[in-house]
Amino acid sequence: MSGDYTPERIAYNKRMSIKNGIYAAVALGIFSSFLPLYAIEALHATDYQVALLSSLPQLVNLLVLIPGALFLSRLKQKKGFTTLNVGLAKVFFLIAAFVPWIYPDDPAQALVIVIAFYGIPLALAGLSWQAFISDLIPAEERNAFFGQRNRDTTLWAMVAVFLTGMLLNLFDKKLIWPYQFFFVIAFLFGVLETWTLFRHDEPVRPVDEREPKRLNFQAVRTMFQRPAFVRFFIAGMFFNFAWQMAWPLFNIYQIKTVHATAFWLSLFTVANQISQSIAFPYWGRLADRFGTGTALAITALGMATAPTLTVLSTSLVYLVFVNLFTGAFVAGTVLLLFNQLLHVSPAEDRTSYIAVYNLGVGAVGFIAPQVGVYLASLLTLPGAMHASSLLRFGSACVFAWYVWRYDRHERGERVARGESS
Questions:
Q1: pTM above 0.90?
Q2: CA angle, 78 as apex, 73 and 80 as ends, to 5°?
Q3: Which of 44, 283, 391, 418 has the fewest CB atoms inside 10 Å of its own CB, making it the most exposed?
Q4: Which of 220, 203, 221 is nearest to 75 (CA)?
């Protein structure tokens, strides 16, 4: 594969990837930022249905990732499969927009079902994009490149979400048609995302040079015999559970308790994304200097503060500043989890490793939001948010343990090879 990393091809794919990321961030930013408001205010979704909007796509992950990985592992090129699923996922933006017309008797439940099916192409696109892009960007350039890419895409998404929030705020938040209009806009940006993804320059691999990336039981047994992957997997699952259990709680608190309008929701997102765009390159540099695992432990610790800080006040201005603070740690999490997954996954079986990791994330992601809403019914919503903060703090400790074990393992391997420790 190293022969495919020509400077011209790398530079071209980087440009295309940044354009693709910008369109993707704008499309998803508009859709996901206002989907909870649409569900709760316009379609009158219950707390349980709000939780299902987060958890059902993760359940779908469990059902499609293994067959998806089996199919993906047999492809000489991944671009076509990735592009197809990215495009199909964006079609569900349109379906979600028009569910009140498709099923007027219970549009909130219809939206839950639509988002569940949206998870099918979304899961396949995520799996194939990770494997696809890892073949196009050399490992030693990923931290710096994805730091820049995430910063640029976040800035554009921030502008799009802010403008959308300002315009939505001009209308009664219970009206349906303004959401429909902007979801159509999101779909159109999704079309541009699909087009730029297809324009990437992916080399064609001769059959005799293809990497053995078939997903099978032997590969699974092998990966769970690799200490670096096992420890990262454990740390990642713990973190994802603590992280995702609070997702529906943030939406419920902001919309039902604080009564945030579309304008304030956009400000929350913009504040979060401002700090993300500033922090992205610094997390990449920190990871290059001290190691991705160390940086992950720091991001997990920072994200542990988010749920508790959120429920300390109902002031909308205060919540803007909370999002400004916590966004820096979200940036590190998004960047570093992906890079560390690639780092602990050997190139010859990368598709299998990504599939198994995402399978675990899917299982955790289905359970965690339901646990969060259940805890809110037992402990009150603030109590459940504090519980999430405690678990996130625990996940930071697990990442610290992972770093210690990983560094010790790496030193041992260097000594075994006769290198200086």
A1: no
A2: 130
A3: 418
A4: 203
Query: In the block, which residue shows the tokens 């499609």?
Result: 64
What letter would DSSP give residue 345? S
Cα gap 76→82, rounded to integer Å: 13
DSSP state of 42: I
10 vs 341: CA distance, rounded Å? 21
Residue indicated by tokens 């796509």: 57
Question: Exposed/middle/buried for 421, CB within 10 Å: 0-12, 13-18, 19+?
Answer: exposed
- Name the token pair of 280: 């992205």
Measured CA to CA in angstroms, residue 106 lies from 48, 53, 138, 332 at distances of: 15, 15, 49, 39
Neighbours of 237 (CB within 10 A): 17
Q: Closest Cα partner for 387 from 373, 366, 367?
A: 373
Q: Which two tokens stand for residue 104?
A: 């007027």
Q: Are 288 and 308 in contact (CB under 8 A)?
A: no
The CATH label, of 1.10.10.10, 1.20.1250.20, 3.40.50.300, 3.40.50.620, for the domain at 2-416 is 1.20.1250.20
Q: How far is CA 34 from the centre of its chain?
A: 17
Note down pLDDT in tens along the chain; length 421 residues: 444 667 788 888 888 999 999 999 999 999 999 999 999 999 999 998 998 998 888 888 778 877 877 777 677 778 888 899 999 999 999 999 999 999 998 999 999 999 999 989 998 888 788 778 877 877 777 777 877 888 788 889 889 999 999 999 999 889 999 999 999 999 999 999 999 999 888 776 554 444 444 455 566 677 777 877 888 888 889 989 999 999 999 999 999 999 999 999 999 988 988 888 788 778 878 877 877 777 878 888 899 999 999 999 999 999 999 999 998 898 888 778 877 787 787 777 777 787 788 888 888 888 999 999 999 999 999 999 999 999 999 988 888 887 766 655 555 554 454 554 4
- Domain residues of the chain, as ranges? 2-416
DSSP 3-state of 155: helix
Contact between 213 and 347 (Cβ < 8 Å)? no
Sign of the torsion formed by the C-alpha atoms of 111, 117, 121 and 126: positive
Q: Which residues fall within 8 angstroms of residue 178, CB to CB, at 6 or more apart?
A: 167, 168, 171
Helices (H) and strands (E) in the chain, counts: 16, 0
